[in-house]
Specification:
heterodimer; A: 372 residues; mainly alpha; ABC transporter involved in vitamin B12 uptake, BtuC; 0% strand; globular; B: 534 residues; alpha/beta; Rossmann fold; 17 helices; 22 strands
Amino acid sequence: MKKRFRSYAGKLLIPALSILLALVVASILIIASGLVGPDKQLDWTLPFVAYSALLQGAFGSVRGFSNMLVAAAPLMLTGLAVGVGLKAGLFNIGASGQVLLGGFAAALLGARAAGAPMWVAISVAMLAGILAGALAGFIPGALKAYTGAHEVVTTIMLNALIQLTVSGLVTDVFRAPGFTFARTAPAGNATLVGLGTTTLHFGVLLAFLCIPLSYWFLWRTTTGFEIRSVGANPTAARYAGMNPRRMIIMTMSLCGAFAGMAGAIEILRLGYYPAVFGTSIGFDGITVALLGQGNPIGIMLSALLLGAMRAGAPLMQIKAGVPVEIIDVIQGVILIFLSAEVIVRKIFRLKAAAPGTGEIQTFTRTYGEKVT
Amino acid sequence: MSIEQSPPPRLQMRGITKRFPGVVANDHIDLDVKAGEIHALLGENGAGKSTLMNILYGLSRPDEGEVLLDGQTVQIADPADAIARGIGMVHQHFMLIPVLTVAENILLGTETMANPIFIDRREARKRIIELGKRFGFEIDPDAKVESLSVGWQQRVEILKALYRQAKILVLDEPTAVLTPQETVEIFAVFRRLAAEGHSIIFISHKLYEVLEIADRITVIRRGQVVGSRLPSQTNEDDLAELMVGRRVLLAVDRGKSNPTEPVLKVENLKVQQDRGQEAVRGVSFNVRAGEILGIAGVAGNGQDELVEAITGLRRPNGGTIQLADQDITNWNVRQRREHGLGYVPGDRQKYGLVLGFPITDNLVLTQYYNPPFARGIQRNDGAIEEWAQKMIKEYDVRTPSSSVSAGTLSGGNQQKVIVAREFGRDLKLLVLDQPTRGLDVGSIEFIHKQTILKRNAGTGILLVSAELDEVLELSDRIAVMYRGEIVALVDGPTANKEEVGLLMATGGRAQTEGTPSSGGPGAAPDPSGRGTTS
């Protein structure tokens, strides 16, 4: 029992320290931001003011809290889109494109089903988003399995391809008439509306359901075992009679499906697809997955943390005058410390981790091996 | 040797103690090595030899005890410090860069500069050639390391240490990767080094080698020195007993085999290696139920490709494979396994285990999807745990629990996990590739016994091993493989070691072709690229 606890504590250590270090680094920037502000004064307490406003913004009111959950939901899904891939030894940085394709498909089908009863319309639109995302994951998966093309390269290219293609289609072929800017037709009944006065919507519930579901899938099913085996040692998996090619394609499709779902709930919340759909949830998924060490529960917690920062940031800007972009800085610094684990261990004089095939290693390992 | 004047020993390690959580890896170990001495360090896997040598090489610090060099107490901070103090280490797995030349590899890290910008290559070449001459192995400094045979790569490692003026050389199981012929050659090098006053610490668990080469033998068991012997005063049985702590049967009693009908029929099999060369060139043979067919051969003569083709990891380019009267040539791994194939792979960490997974998962790595280990699409952890407990007990896997990851086990116990998984079900054919590589005598004895039991139970066994002794000891029939062909098939119990060894080295042809993979002194890179295992 004690041992088990220790192993969990060990897993939490690096993420926790990375967050701590990121907050320290951000504090310096926050103090510096006070120097360039209109009042130009050195205020050592500014970071505390900013961070407490951040917390207050996320947890201080029902509205703030629901905003946090709404911000966390898509991050949970993109976190899974990256995290489940890491379990199979795949680094999916295509979540960004998968989100866009999923959102686009959801918007189109949502608009088609706009007049149908709400649950039918939502189901059709969500399903379209999930399938489109899965397709966007399937392609790099198949390329890796059959040609050895590294998923990092192919997904980056697909990101650009999807973004520009979708954007082009929205401004031209699928542009809805009667709006001043290019966008698709309204999703009507497929739109995800808030519950009561809050912003909470059905997609949040769906995202939270995906956490235990993926946990069960990865650790309780035989297919999950195959995925983890292929991720931890592909040659041993092949030796044991598993089919790494199939697993890679399947996992990438699954990752795409999660990202597609994230895109779908974001777009259906909006009710249409704008020509320029700027969202960082695809890339934020990488931070979420690594901070959560690829574990669904960890991913949930990380997504909530990032969601809280997003939801609390406006209040922080009002109260402390700190720009909301500081959130991106914190997130970026967390990612740097996570991937450069060695630095964190040096700073805190920790012993080196046992060499292994952890999720971080998958992330930082850049070579690709041909799959047979 | 003039030990009479008794200068302080070159190296003294006094009362070295190193504790890890839960174990005392070194428990007050005393070791002294004289100048010009070949000192063998003998012990089972996990006995504490590596820990001791890591302390000497500055890779870890002792909790207690001191290290003295030439009578002076020293603190060895790190490997660079160890090298500066004249301690050199040749690891079991070579630390060479294959695409660089011999000279470049040796220079790496200690570049002699002609001026601040350029390396003095000429001076470096000169010194390398001189060193090689002095110790009896002239080597071409401009040869690419990847083109050298394993034996010569090892010499480059030794040269690397000598170039850094090592006086104490630690060799971690140097013969594990060598052929018998290469071993003879490298021993000559060791003797020469010792004669020049170098001290050699030779780590091994091959008893006969230790007896042959060492001036003194120190045996370590469970972190303690349990005895010190002179080769003239001991024998293999005595050393094995010291090492393991009980009587060990060095040669299992294989008994009589009762082979019946063939379970594996290989006909005119052709297999290519990764680079497209034909590694197996039209091989035909049978393995019958209840017999062990051993394949003897110098590493890199097509055995790997043959095994991979039979087990389904590699597509053959021609010929057929039949398993229990079914043509399995184009079947995948799973189909073959379900049809009664078991396989203990040559590389246990790469193929046999998922090191990060617990023992339980590794024990069901090939059967996880079958009941009772799976219920529908879900794993049945209860049944898996129950099975694991049974296998751990039956196959004597030494582990604190079934949930520790396989990577934390010693080599011998890792192999036992694989053996338990592969032997622990009904099989028609069992393929054993280097089943005891790198294991200590206790584990070897256990695995050999299990192999005989499996044979007696009516399983056909294909044994591939680079250890000729192992093949001779277990096989009912021996096929000798040379350059991708089976050049001879001899009866196991009556086989003669020298004869088989000669067949391995020459393929039974005239000797003009040269011996494979050993290379003569100053060996030009072997153009065919053989002798390198992939």
